[in-house]
From TrEMBL:
Enzyme class: lyase
Matches recorded under Pfam families: PALP (PF00291)
Cross-referenced PANTHER family: L-THREONINE DEHYDRATASE CATABOLIC TDCB, THREONINE DEHYDRATASE, MITOCHONDRIAL-RELATED
Residues that coordinate or bind pyridoxal 5'-phosphate: 131, 231-235, 369
The keyword Chaperone belongs to this UniProt entry's keyword annotation: no
UniProt pathway: Amino-acid biosynthesis; L-threonine biosynthesis; L-threonine from L-aspartate: step 5/5
Annotated family: Belongs to the threonine synthase family.
Role played: Catalyzes the gamma-elimination of phosphate from L-phosphohomoserine and the beta-addition of water to produce L-threonine.
Naturally occurring in which organism (per UniProt): Thermoproteota archaeon
One example GO MF annotation: pyridoxal phosphate binding
Protein name: Threonine synthase
Amino acid sequence: MSPKLKCINCGAEYRDDEIVYVCRKCNSLLDVVMEIPKVSLNEFKKREFGIWRYREFLPIEEGCEIITLKEGGTPLYECDKLAKWVGVKKLYIKYEGMNPTGSFKDRGMSVGVTKAKSLGLKSVACASTGNTSASLAAYAARAGLKCYVILPENKVALGKLAQAMMHGAKVMSVKGNFDEALRLVMELSSKMGLYLLNSVNPWRLEGQKTLAFEVIEQLGHVPDIVAVPMGNCGNISAIWKGFKEFYKSGIINKLPRMFGIQAEGAAPVVNMLRKGLNRLIPVSNPETIATAIRIGNPVNWPKAVMALKESNGLFETVSDNEIIEAQRLIASLEGIGVEPASAASVAGVRKAVLNNVIDKENEVVCIGTGHLLKDPEEVIKVCGRPIEIPSDIRAILNIL
Ligand code: F0G
């Protein structure tokens, strides 16, 4: 059976060669449906560590040209000192900053751009808070495709902007936030025939499933909790799908609880769950230091809510100060440099322990979604500048 797309609301189905992002009948999100392969972990272990090791779980036809920069295969660090600070028995960081462009987006873009190429498309596009555009620009360059990007003006970290520009994307910035940029790029894509690679594209999310597969392999078992910062909510949905597929294939026999964390000023999903609503009320002016997750109207909220409900999951918000504190401690206690959005996961777990929502005996994996160097300006703002010294050793000793 070749993979197909299925509407998560009305069940309408679409072929895998149709260019469709949301259901034509009811406008809801689509999911990739495929036969769950039967492959053993031992078989995977014989192959190179990276997303294409899980080839059978990726819905790309045999014979397609694979567009890869050797994404995935990132380290899972055991963090004992951080675990003490957070208050749990065991804490791990899955360090996605080690991907080719420094974030987890590369997993999705490898599959998404491979799909674009197999469909014969010449141009790709996205809106972005930064990392998606950096990643898409790099993979489009690798594939020889044109890349169009719309960013919220003055709200994209410098490192991410530099990447998108240098990899040759046509970069546009709009006076508005990510939600407006996404609305514009969706319209632009349909008018110009560009292939949209935001996380509303279900093929892209298939690549991000591999985060779950790698955690299982590296840990050797299923953790109690997997904590993920939520922005547009694609990643938490993809990781949950990955765990479910390993479960269905018989590779694992239990599932973790998913823990979704948002920044206080950009928390539409957590607000909705706290109030017990069944519809999202968008945040019209989202604001947080974690610009990667500064999103008020996340497209994938229905999938994220499903992941949290199905996994008996948890949700929490964290303040900018809590994010910065966690970012500092991840960097200074463990030597792992993450950007603010990534630190939100660790800050959220600590808060949940303090509030007695998470048991101290739990083993937790936090997804460190992006690299510290993505946002150097934020680092300088919170750490300050280097100490200025004269070129005189005695004066330096005096200062120290
Ligand atoms: N962490 C980082 C570093 C991100 O860049 C993003 C999303 C997230 C977490 C949240 O993931 O959207 O799947 O819930 N960044 C997108 C972008 C929106 O445009 O780069 P999500």
